[in-house]
User: Fold this.
Amino acid sequence: MITHLEDINKAFESKVRLGIMSVLMVNDEADFNTLKELLGLTDGNLASHTRALENLKYIKAKKQFVGRKPKTTYSRTKEGEKAFQDHLQALEAFLKNNL
Amino acid sequence: MITHLEDINKAFESKVRLGIMSVLMVNDEADFNTLKELLGLTDGNLASHTRALENLKYIKAKKQFVGRKPKTTYSRTKEGEKAFQDHLQALEAFLKNNL
Assistant:
């Protein structure tokens, strides 16, 4: 199989997005603070990447109030799951051919 | 920063190993059957990759008996954690420079 770098999904080039998607593949849901702690990020950094993945429809956010505190919980979409699996496949093939 | 493909850790080129390490970064421990289900693998396929990662000292296995059934639980090592983080860093840098 010939694999080109173009098959790799630019949406997942960042370590943070790889991390977010990995967590949401392993866990059906994760809230903002859990992602923040697991990935060791600041609020702003995490928020900008979750927003980008939401805009791509790869993850979706559910907003609730727990008492008076807002809580945002993320989950992968079907589309995101497929895109991420395709990306890992392309990445693996590319690395196997080029390392 | 100039990043070359050589900075990417060949141990993690496989999607399966990327999956095992991702699960063990998110969860401190995971047993064989949990990994198998999360990653959708056969026993043989998972075993060959956990063995490879154990040989590299990137993960460690704890074997117990639960009743009469053997149970193997895996966790990342400090070395594995560092190697995986370095790999993701190198991968991100490489992709940013080349996509």
